[in-house]
DNA sequence: TAGATTGTTAATCGATTAACAATC
DNA sequence: TAGATTGTTAATCGATTAACAATC
């Protein structure tokens, strides 16, 4: 009894959530109140059972045979699950073009991220501002993170500096790291690293393309 | 006989390649000629057997018991596999901060991507240049892709415009799409879409963090 | 009622990990 | 030789898909 880990949301399922949310919002805008798993599956090119299981795992209300699931309930539950409504505070390190892109992305705050400070390892840019956030010297990282109780660090510095910055963030009490540097970071077990390796993604795309063209010819 | 799909490189293995390459380059800079799977596994926090299998799958030369694998052979084979040496041509659509970041990323050309044209759906920016690439109006997409035989399209436009742009790219004969818009794109079966959904990644990070803090407290 | 849709149990698939003999 | 390391076969694990009874 009470083994209610039953319909846990897996990592893969979590990846699908933002796409469900996108589709559900479209339906909500059209004032459609319920939707079935097969319908969403069709729109997103997913398996029907998979969608149903995902919905069952997150929805606080059961689906109804024939009718489907409540659009608004699903949206609420998914947005809650992904933390869209209460933004985590984060610090960003690096001032290159990726850093600019992240800081410029007004949307992030709606998706659970509030950047409260930015740092640079390069003394040149320090003191300047990007999108209203002042750039601080990187030796202040640990201190500021600890003082402000920030739990997320975003790394956009070049590969060579990434590990050092990472260590500073960890020293400052950060628990999760969003890493845009194309390197593996060594961290203690309890730290979560999410790698966003654009070069790796690109390589995958290129490889797949090559394969596809080979089989086609 | 001749069922030589034996040690195929899986999608997951492909994802690990750039990290192997990073480690191998470090070794090469130190003039180290061979390396064992357990050593690399330790550095990257991976399973030893997994690394050995990955190496075996890509290496044109077998590993030697006791000695390990040739660093330079592995590097050559992996870079070849990922297409680092012969860049695919691509077009980019959108001129927001992510587009700027991609265009500014000098590194991409070394990793198999050469952006030959950029487009914008917004008439304002047309005619201007970003990093030496002139911005063209988006109604030229299909034509130019077809004429230049470009096979990769990069979408960085807002969500609402992504599907339209996608259709134009497909009409132009593009075979692979690197999609930075946070939406699902509908495409014919033979088209490869790789989604780079930063908002989704962020949500995952936030969710994991929440879970981690819950179990810790 | 008939039929679409749900929820659940079982089968399948793919990737990772374990076990172990072969080899330099 | 002894021992580290490879390569391969088998076991495990997790996620997806199929099958089907329950239900509105």
Annotate the secondary structure layout.
2 copies of one chain form a homodimer.
Chain A: H1 11-29, E1 34-35, H2 37-44, H3 48-58, E2 69-70, H4 71-81, E3 88-93, H5 97-104, E4 113-120, E5 129-130, E6 133-137, H6 141-148, E7 152-155, H7 159-171, E8 176-179, E9 192-195, H8 198-216
Parallel strand pairs in A: 3-4, 3-7, 4-6, 7-8, 8-9
Antiparallel strand pairs in A: 1-2, 5-6
Helix pairs in contact in A: 1-4, 2-3, 6-7
Chain A binds a DNA duplex (24 and 24 nucleotides) through residues 10, 12-13, 36-38, 47-50, 52-53, 56, 62-69.
Describe it.
2 copies of one chain form a homodimer. Chain A is of the alpha/beta class and 217 residues long. Chain A folds into 2 domains: 11-81, Winged helix-like DNA-binding domain superfamily/Winged helix DNA-binding domain (Arc Repressor Mutant, subunit A); 88-200, Rossmann fold (3-Layer(aba) Sandwich). Helix content of chain A is 45%, strand content 17%. The first copy, chain A, has 8 helices and 9 strands. The first copy, chain A, has helices at residues 11-29, 37-44, 48-58, 71-81, 97-104, 141-148, 159-171, 198-216, and strands spanning 34-35, 69-70, 88-93, 113-120, 129-130, 133-137, 152-155, 176-179, 192-195. In chain A, strands 5-6-4-3-7-8-9 form a 7-stranded mixed sheet. In chain A, helix 7 (159-171) links the parallel strand 7 (152-155) and strand 8. In chain A, helix 1 (11-29) packs across helix 4 and helix 6 packs across helix 7 (159-171). Chain A is globular. Chain A starts with 10 loop residues before the first helix and ends with a helix. The first copy, chain A, binds a DNA duplex (24 and 24 nucleotides) through helix 3.
């Amino acid at each position: 009894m009470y083994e209610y880990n039953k319909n846990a949301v897996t990592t893969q399922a979590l990846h699908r959530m933002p796409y469900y949310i996108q589709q559900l919002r479209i339906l909500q805008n059209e004032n459609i109140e319920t939707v079935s798993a097969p319908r969403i599956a069709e729109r997103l090119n997913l398996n029907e059972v998979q969608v149903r299981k995902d919905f069952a795992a997150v929805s606080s209300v059961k689906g109804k045979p024939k009718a489907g699931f409540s659009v608004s309930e699903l949206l609420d539950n998914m947005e809650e699950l992904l933390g869209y409504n209460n933004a985590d505070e984060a610090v960003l390190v690096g001032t290159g073009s990726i850093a600019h892109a992240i800081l410029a992305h007004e949307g992030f705050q709606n998706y659970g991220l509030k950047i409260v400070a930015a740092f640079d390892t390069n003394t040149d840019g320090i003191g300047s501002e990007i999108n209203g956030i002042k750039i601080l010297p990187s030796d202040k990282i640990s201190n500021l993170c600890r003082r402000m109780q920030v739990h997320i660090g975003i790394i956009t510095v070049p590969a060579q500096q990434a590990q050092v910055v990472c260590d500073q963030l960890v020293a400052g009490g950060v628990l999760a790291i969003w890493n845009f540097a194309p390197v593996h970071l060594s961290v203690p077990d309890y730290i979560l690293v999410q790698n966003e390796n654009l070069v790796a993604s690109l390589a995958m795309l290129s490889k797949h393309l090559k394969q596809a063209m080979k089989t086609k010819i």
